[in-house]
Amino acid sequence: MVDFIVGHFNYWVIITLMMTGLYVIISTGNLVKKLVGLGVFQTSVFQLYITLSKVAGGRPPIFDKLPGYGTETKYGAAVDPLLGVIYSNPLPHVLILTAIVVGVSTLAVGLALVVRIREAYGSIEGDDIDEAEYKIEIASS
Amino acid sequence: MNFIEMITNAGGGHLLANAPALVVAIPLIAGAVAVVLGHGKLAWVWSVLIALVTFGFSLILLQSVLGGETITYAMGNWPAPLGITYHIDALNALLISLVSAMALLALLYGWPMVEREIDPKKHAMFFGTFLLCVGGLIGVAIAGDAFNVFVFLEVSSISTYVLVAMGAQKNRQALTASFNYLILGTIGATFFVIGVGLLYMATGTLNMADISRILADSEGNRVVRAAFAFIVIGLGLKTAMFPLHTWLPNAYTFSPSMIGVFLASTATKVAFYILIRFLFSVFHAGASFETAMFDFVLAPMAMVAMIVCSVQASFQSDVRRLLAYSSVAQVGYMLLGLSLGTAAGLAAGLLHMFNHALMKGALFMAVGLAGLGLGITRVNELRGLGKTMPLVAAGLTVAGLSLIGVPLTAGFISKYYLVIAVLERGWWWAVVAIVVSSVLAIFYVGRMIEAMYLQNPPTPSAAHESDPPIQVRSPVLSMAALYVLVIGSVWFFFDPSLPKGLADTAAGLLIGGGGL
Amino acid sequence: MGLDVSFDIFIVIDLIIMSMLLVVGIALVRLNNLFAVVMLYGVYSLLAAIWFVSLDAVDVAFTEAAVGAGISTVLMLGAMLLTSREAKPTPALRRWLSLGVVGVTGMALFYATFDMPNFGDANSPANSYVGLQYMYDTITEVGVPNVVTAILASYRAFDTFGEVVVVLTAGLGVMLILGIGTTRTRDGESPQSGDETTQSAPPVTTVLATENHHIVLQVVAKILIPIIVLYALYVQFHGDYGPGGGFQAGVIFASAVILYSLIFGMDETRRAIPAKVVQFGTALGVLIFGGLGLVTIAMGGKFLDYDVLTAADPILGQHVGILIIEVGVLVTVASVMLSIYYGFAGRYRELKDQDW
Predict the structure, then answer these.
(1) Which of C58, C89, C116 is the last residue before a domain boundary?
(2) Are A38 and B200 inside 8 Å of each other by CB?
(3) What is the per-residue pLDDT across A79-130, written as a single tens digit (0 to 9) for each?
(4) Which residues of C touch B139 (CB under 8 A)?
(5) 126-165 in B: which are within 8 Å (CB) of A?
(6) What CATH fold (topology level) applies to the domain A2-54+89-140?
(7) In this structure, is residue C223 part of a structural domain?
(8) Following DSSP, what letter does each residue of B343-391 receive, concatenated?
(9) Identity of the residue in A41, A121, A129 whose CB atom sits nearest the CB atom of B190
């Protein structure tokens, strides 16, 4: 039971963090805060992947080895890198590297839109913008 | 151009063997090239050329999978599951042909609109972004790796947000439409990533065929079920599945005309495809939670969409918004076919996807032309179009009839097969929904036809009191692109063998052995 | 499975970081001052980066710190300065609706945790199948000690290609939406009304004027910038052996230029690196990366199959291939970061010292 709680506790924390981000996105009407929420949501998903890749007692998946394909190492001894050393799983790291960059790309486009929306409507509150459009719609019909 | 020569020298067979990679890489690389082609028209010519080449490659791929074969292509020659593989069969070959053909037609159609709607200094980047969007959509369609799907989904999505926002020069609402799309689209993509992460957690692999194999061997557990839910919701957002469709009407309404045409006929289709791929190939149709989801969530939502969004379409005064709501309703038809869980239903859904791309593309083109010629954006402004722009009005009418599903049009064929498939399952209430939705379609399409043919054209002074009357222009290439789709909408009534055959083959693969 | 002692210490560290993340998350929800919200986002990213180090994901930590805590926060601050500093509080109805949606979603995930493997489980499917295979194969097949780089740049190079295209898309997007800042006037369609930030003078490209009291900054910057660029190059070319690579190096390089522009002004920066060059650079990186793919096809291999680059020695081919695509990544990432900065900076109103 203790093993189960210790082994699953970080999932629960990460889920809470994800939902915090999602809550900010859905609840706030402020466009900048929405994007902050999106960032928190995505960063928390990254945490889910990375926590998954951790192997108990592991080290970062980088060999202490020169780039040759012989047996020399930094320390001059021939060591099989897979012998006696535990490494964490590299694949989720790669995926998340990609996802981080995708995330910042989305954010940049989103912020650019916010700046233009501010210039066009004089507000970055979703409710104010809807109201402005609604008034125009009423006036035109 | 050096590369192309080198490739040609490398020999035809080798070139064809690499077609799966090239069909994605060429538009993406060409998109980057377009950015540095400073001159607007040059960028357009370049894009048309690239779309043509891409279409050629997709036809080559289509040709090689017509008989139900599958092609697997290993990127970087790394075998799955270590590397990323592409997987091509009847289903996605049909889709990439559709996407590249629509890209070509949208480009041929779009130059006069782009010239008017987009700042000339931005033309090169605009066409560059468009090519990236095309490459992204094709990449999603042929990826055989779950995470690669996400990456290319984001290529296509981010470029779509940008392209939609380019409508801001016409109407500032394009900005908010794009922003809302960005928020909902990114939530969808993130849900998808959560789903893929959970699948990876359960199986240890990202290759879709591999995931499918491992899931088939194991009893589904809670992680897999949650992954399923997140993937369905994530892709549902991208597909504009009711009630996750709220981004769509404004995005279609306020985007530049050319982008409206392209999005309406491809974007949700690709998302729909990848949804099918996950539901039937990665997960296994027939798993209890999947059947329950089909019967109790997807099918009811599909029917609600078919009726509610058709009603909403009937009350729209903006023509493009009317068409956009109709699109959400039509997605309902496709989802209904899918939710039947049978080969017949799936084939009908796929066929409707194909036909809907043709007719909705044609409708958006016709409306765009009316807008270019007469500044028309509203349904009541269509009055007398039958006299002022007879060819455009005729095209709009034929495509509209196809949307209703009138005999002699392709829309009839797909609705016919859908009804047959629904009756096979004994879902008579779904037939009622189809009929009600079609009647509503008669109403909203009828409004346009009535305005075009039964009302007199406005005198210029009444319509635009302050503006000088706009000169009626009907660019030849745009008309040609429109009529390719209009004729297609009729042609595939008389000879539906190509899309029907592919849809049947694809559905057979999907239902039969998972299709991966 | 048994947990050994050294692992327990990591669990304590993890617990501390997690509780800090939770505190920051809750604060983010409750605050409406945008400046505070954005700064907390930076803190959140940094905490995440620290956690990633503790979880052995050093490459990810590096990127998260540079991109999440660095670039993202700067962009958000910039956008906030251009818009407004206060968010309206959420109406009660929407709060409850959102809570409902979030509750259902959270429960679905919580439900799934009961079948999830234990934290740190070496035998979980995720850690024992493909991920482990990379550890066995990398040295003989790719010959790069940093396995993350090997996967990123070779095994899953096509993902990375897509990623570079995403970055290009974002750069194009910002340039299309905001312009690249060559014009000083706003678009005609914007009505100038609203709160304090709009009634200001037309945007001026100089963020900080080169006034006399910045002389210290200028001297320090002149020393710092070459060092930063050098560090970027180190990160770029050391990516095979340690954490780092094109993305991180691109971001660092861009930040050197941004620092330059903060001290010496946008006009000076535009003279040093013209907008046209930046625009060309965004495309150039993708062309290098994609071009290599076409070359490998032309040389008889598959797309991005580096083995064919050198006839005799596939490992050398892998090295060459990785080197080239990392350069492509560097060029596009650095250029796009700059184009985004130019885009936003082109719309900055003048910032005076007393505004801070």
Answers:
(1) C116
(2) no
(3) 444 556 788 899 999 999 999 999 999 999 999 999 989 888 888 888 888 8
(4) 162
(5) 147, 150-151, 154, 158, 161-162, 165
(6) Helix Hairpins (1.10.287)
(7) yes
(8) HHHHHHHHHHHHHHHHHHHHHHHHHHHHHHHH---BGGGGTTHHHHSHH
(9) A41
